[in-house]
Every structure is written in structure tokens, then in C-alpha cells.
Fold:
Amino acid sequence: MQRENVNNMPESFRETETEEQRARGNQSPPNIVSAISQFADDNLTLVRNISTGLAVAGVVVIARSIRLVTKFQSVSEIPARFIERNVSLRGKVHSITERGVEVEHVPIYLPFVSPLLSKHKGVGTSTMLVHLAGVEVTPEGKVWLQKNLAPAQTVWLKLISREDDTLHCLVSQSKQGSMWSCCINEEVLRLGLARTAPIVGVVPDSRLYWRLHKRLHRAEVRAERKGRGLWKQDSLWERVSKAVRDSTLFRLMSRIFKRT
Structure:
């Protein structure tokens, strides 16, 4: 009897009921992504502040982990991994001494981040002793360095090795009006103002040693071929004059003329 009643229902009523059941069956649970998006739209300022805070915190963590903005006051403060990876540091020249170049480390400055990570607030300026790696500078070369590495000039220090309180580096400076930098180690060799020397703190059989040695030796050979600096040769007249002055006959004649 009940089945007959269902069958006797109007078709329009059965179709409506079927559509409602289909709608209820297709209805999905609340969309989480949509809810989050709606919350973000309603609280846009809060979300922006949170994003900014997370970004700053991330930069601080990264900077602290790689010592990006740390100012090194002494050679011993430089991490060993910086030496191993031949990291380049920026510095400011203070003076040229008999021992080498006195350089103040100048770290990369990041607004808002650098003040948070500074360990030496209110501490006086401290310098590090830098030696030109693989180079033995002549007295004339030291004079040249004093003229070309003026105080307060910015240089880049490619770390090669560390020996007690001394850094052995490839020192570079930017050329005025040029995008390229000049390696001071190579330049003093190229001008004949220095000789190549063993690279302290680097294993002689290592790839780094021979790469640096080849680079520096090439600059020294160039100076020798062009007769620059300590490789400069006297002219023929100068050599003849020197030979005559050093001869026994010339010395004897000089003594006779002095007596008379």
C-alpha cells in the first residue's frame, strides 16, 4: 500500500526531492583553504606583520650562522671554515709596516640586522696584520705599497692561510674608473718590486698551492722579460763603464793621479 502511495506521488514532487538529495550528497565539508584565505583577508595587517617578523628572523638566523655581519677584531676570531673556503673579506687599510699591511675588517652592513648582531659596541678600532701571500716585497715595493694603499682605502682580502696573528691573503683593490679589481700580489711582481716566495700555510702538493704559484710566477716572469724593477738590466754603456771602474788598471791609474 505504501509503495502504491509513493508511486502515486506527482512526478514533479519526486524530481524535487531527488534534486535535494543530490545536492545534500554533493555538499562537501567546509574548505580549510578558503577559511584561511578569508581570515587573511579580514586580518591583512596582522598577516603582513607576522610575515615581516618571520622574514627578519630568518635573515638574522642566516646572518648569524654564516657570520655575515660580524666584525672581526683579531685574526683569531675568523672561523676556520672561512680560511678553508678562501672566503673574501672587505677591509680598510690603516698603514703599511715592515711586517705587512694593517687592515681593519669592514663587515657587510644590513639595516636593522647589523646592530642586533654587533658584539663590539663601543669598542675601539682594531686592525689585523695582512701579508701578501706568496710574495717577498723589496724595499722599493714597500714604498710603492705606501703610495698605492693609502689609509682608509677599501681592499678585499681573499683568505689563503693563517699563521699566529698574521693573515696570508690575496689583496685586491678596485681600479679608479674601472669595473675590474687589481690583485696587489700580482701587481708588485709584475712591476719587479717583489719576488715569489713559498705560500705559507698551504700544502705544496695541493691544487690551491700550484694554482696560486702558477698565477704569481706568471707575473714575475713578465717583469723579468721586460726588465722591470729588480730585473732591470744596465745598458751596454753602463756595463762597460762598470767593468772599466772595477779593472786593476783603472784602480792603479787612480792611485797615481791621487799621489800627484
User: Anything to note?
Assistant: The longest helix spans residues 44-66.
